[in-house]
Design a protein that fits this description.
about 75% strand; mainly beta; about 220 residues; elongated; eleven-stranded antiparallel β-sheet; four-stranded antiparallel β-sheet
Length: about 220
């Protein structure tokens, strides 16, 4: 994943590796989901430093770890060819980013402190599912709409100091505040390879205040035990 910085000031690239367990329990129309995930990330970043009489480039290579826990559930009732019902979930995530020192810019390179941030997001919405049988096999269709809210404030600021600073003090870089309320929409389709295995594709969009937009797509293979 690459993230270019505005006005050509630099760019960043992140490689992420995740491992997790996910389980679903059904009883009648009621279902309960639970999951736990661990992620290991490696970040490469570069930025351009340009002021009158100064033009340098700084680079950084650092890691971070992320732990995520999910608990959710809902109830589905028949409505024509569909099953429709409410759903709710809680998603907690903790990010631990290691400290690092930039290179390449001499005394204006930065030493950045370790940073820990947390997120607790709740969702409340409506889910619709339908199974369609064709000659090619069974297809699972899914659509959802939900309101998501971020509950944790936390200190997300970045604390740093210049490598060549003559005093040990640090300064803060104000991090972007999370969007508190987001309207989410999702669409999905799955093809059943067997009774317990299927291929699936999913899309999720998020829309919030001040022009916030997010779009996520996923392709996967799921096996039920």
């Amino acid at each position: 994943m690459e993230r270019p910085l505005e006005e050509g000031r630099g760019e960043g690239e992140t490689d992420s590796y995740q491992l997790g367990l996910y389980a679903t329990w059904h009883q009648g129309g009621f279902y309960l989901d639970a999951g736990g995930f661990y992620g290991l990330n490696r970040h490469d970043a570069s930025r351009n430093i340009a002021y009158p009489g100064l033009a340098r480039g700084a680079e950084a290579d650092y890691g971070s770890q992320q732990v995520t826990a999910l608990l959710g559930g809902g109830w589905l009732s028949p409505l024509g060819d569909w099953k429709v019902g409410p759903e709710a979930s809680l998603l907690y995530s903790h990010l631990d980013q290691e400290s690092f020192t930039e290179t390449g810019a001499g005394d204006v390179s930065l030493r950045v402190d370790r940073r820990r941030t947390g997120s607790l997001k709740s969702t409340l919405g409506l889910l619709a599912q339908r199974r369609v049988t064709q000659e090619e096999g069974q297809f699972d269709l899914e659509a959802r709409a939900a309101w998501a809210r971020e509950h944790l404030e936390g200190d997300r600021d970045i604390k740093a100091r210049f490598v060549g600073a003559s005093t040990p003090g640090t300064f803060k870089v104000r991090a972007e505040e999370p969007v508190r309320d987001i309207f989410q929409v999702g669409l999905g389709v799955g093809f059943r390879v067997s009774e317990k295995a299927r291929l699936f594709a999913q899309y999720e969009g998020g829309f919030g205040r001040d022009g916030y937009r997010s779009h996520t797509g996923m392709l996967g293979f799921q096996v039920r035990f």
